[in-house]
Design a protein that fits this description.
The protein is of the alpha+beta class and about 140 residues long. Helices cover about 35% and strands about 25% of the residues. It is built from three helices and five strands, in the order E-H-H-E-E-H-E-E. The chain has a five-stranded antiparallel beta sheet with strand order 1-2-3-5-4, with helices on one face. The mean pLDDT is about 90.
Length: about 140
């Protein structure tokens, strides 16, 4: 198993830098054959959505709070895990982005996107999300 792990402050600048580094690691996974079925676009989308949710909703733009990021790959799976220091959330309490006026809201589709890309799980506190991608 290959693992890339990094802790960053809750800023978009740190997030962009992390994504660049993580995509380099993702290239290594692809060369090793661990992520043959995952496109760079898909990986970038998952990282963007998970990190933006951690910055905006989890840590509420508090730059003193950190985000733990982990990208792992082996012959069976590739996964992204993002944990923030926020109070967490309950996914079953979120409005359905496909229902009524929610379809026109400027946000609220990140979890739906990630759920359509891979298997999404959360910890009990709701401040850590993992996305397992098809290899």
């Amino acid at each position: 198993m290959l693992v890339f792990e990094k802790t960053i402050p809750s800023t978009r600048e740190a997030s962009r830098s992390l994504i660049r580094e993580a995509l380099e690691f993702f290239s290594l996974l692809k060369r090793k054959g661990y992520a043959s079925g995952v496109s760079e676009f898909t990986m970038r989308l998952v990282m963007d959505e998970a990190l933006e949710n951690a910055i905006r909703h989890g840590n509420r733009y508090n730059e003193e709070k950190i985000i733990l990021f982990r990208l792992m790959g082996n012959k069976k799976k590739v996964s992204v895990t993002v944990q923030d220091q926020g109070g967490g959330f309950h996914p079953d309490r979120l409005p359905d982005p496909l229902h009524g006026n929610n379809r026109f809201a400027p946000g609220g589709r990140g979890l739906l996107l990630m759920s359509n890309i891979g298997i999404v799980t959360w910890n009990a506190e709701g401040n850590c999300v993992s996305i397992e991608l098809p290899r």
